[in-house]
Automatic annotation (TrEMBL):
Keywords: Membrane, Transmembrane
Originating organism: Dissostichus eleginoides (Patagonian toothfish)
Xref: PANTHER family: DETONATOR, ISOFORM E (PTHR13388), TRANSMEMBRANE PROTEIN 132E (PTHR13388:SF7)
Protein name: Transmembrane protein 132E
Transmembrane domains' residue ranges: none
C-alpha cells in the first residue's frame, strides 16, 4: 500500500476447516485467489494498492466513497477521512438568571501543516431540545484551529418545572447547589453540519419551533449528532450574580450574596465582546 501515512494489513487467524481427502479447504475457496484485509488510519491523499503476482503487477487507487462513505465533513477537493468534529459544553449547568448556553466546536485529526481548506470549512448548527420545543443557532468553523463557539439564550419557559414530564426531572442531590429547587430539568443538545451561503456566512437558526420543521427551511442533509445534555436550574435569590469589570478587556461574574466560612465560591472570568486580547496573566 502506498500514499498512506498510517495503514495496516490485518492477519486473519487460521481456523481449521473440514478436510476433504485429508486436506483442509482454504477460506478463499480457490487456490489462485487471495484476499487481504487492511485498515487506513491516516492519509492525506487516496491510498493505492500495489498487487504483484509472478510477472504481473497492478496498481489501483482506493475510491473516496470507500474511505468515507457517509462522512458529514464532505468538503469538495479535500480528503477528510481523518477529521472528526468535537463538541465541548462550556457550562453543563445553566441557571435561569444567566440562561446562556455555550458549546465549543473544533475539528480534530487535521494535518497542522496543511491549511488549504480553511475557506471550505463547514458551519455547525447547534440544536437544543426541551421536550418538543427547539431552539438553534449556527457558527462557522474558522482559522488554523478550525473552531467556533455557538451560543444560545434559553427562554424563561424552559426553566419552568410545571411543564416538565417526569422522565426529564431529577432530584438535586448536589450539596453545592443549596437554595435551588428540588428538581432539575434536562435539555438535550445535538448538532448538524451544513455548508455556508454564497457570502461565506452561516444561516442562523429560525428561533423557536415545536414538533414540526420551520416553514421555508431546508431539511438537513445529515442526521442530528448528539452532544449531550445540560441541567437547567431555577435560581433563587441566593444565586444572583453580579458583574465586576477588571479592565477594558475582561470582567468577573461572581455571587452577590455574602459568603459563609468554608463556602465554595465559583467565579467566572469573561472576555468583553469587543476584546482583541489573545493572552493574559491571571494572578
Amino acid at each position: 500500500m502506498s500514499n498512506a501515512q498510517l495503514a495496516f494489513f490485518l492477519r486473519e487467524a487460521q481456523i481449521s476447516g473440514p478436510t476433504v481427502g485429508g486436506r483442509s479447504n482454504p477460506s478463499s475457496g480457490h487456490p489462485l485467489q487471495r484476499s487481504e484485509s487492511f485498515v487506513v488510519f491516516q492519509t492525506k491523499e487516496l491510498p493505492a494498492i500495489n498487487i504483484t503476482f509472478g510477472p504481473f503487477a497492478r496498481d489501483q487507487a482506493l475510491s473516496k466513497e470507500l474511505l468515507q462513505p457517509t462522512s458529514p465533513l464532505d468538503i469538495p477537493g479535500q480528503l477528510t477521512v481523518n477529521w472528526k468534529v468535537r463538541a465541548f459544553i462550556v457550562q453543563a449547568r445553566v441557571f435561569s438568571n444567566n440562561p446562556t448556553l455555550q458549546v465549543f466546536f473544533y475539528i480534530a485529526g487535521r494535518d497542522w501543516d496543511d491549511f488549504k481548506a480553511q475557506d471550505k470549512l463547514p458551519c455547525v448548527r447547534l440544536h437544543a431540545f426541551r421536550d418538543v420545543r427547539e431552539i438553534k443557532t449556527s457558527c462557522r468553523m474558522k482559522g488554523n484551529l478550525a473552531q467556533c463557539l455557538a451560543q444560545l439564550e434559553l427562554p424563561p419557559s424552559w426553566f419552568n418545572t410545571i411543564v416538565a414530564p417526569l422522565g426529564r426531572r431529577k432530584g438535586s442531590t448536589d450539596g453545592l447547589l443549596d437554595g435551588l429547587t428540588s428538581e432539575t430539568l434536562q435539555a438535550e443538545l445535538y448538532y448538524t453540519l451544513h455548508g455556508p451561503n454564497v457570502d461565506g456566512e452561516c444561516i442562523e437558526g429560525l428561533g423557536h419551533r415545536g414538533g414540526g420543521a420551520s416553514r421555508g427551511e431546508p431539511l438537513s442533509q445529515h442526521p442530528l449528532l448528539r452532544i449531550g445534555s445540560i441541567s437547567l436550574y431555577q435560581a433563587s435569590q441566593e444565586q444572583l450574580l453580579v458583574d465586576k469589570q477588571l479592565d477594558k478587556n475582561m470582567f468577573l461574574r461572581l455571587p452577590e450574596k455574602p459568603l459563609k466560612p468554608g463556602e465554595v465560591l465559583q467565579i467566572s472570568l469573561y472576555l468583553m465582546p469587543n476584546s482583541t486580547v489573545e493572552q493574559f496573566t491571571l494572578r
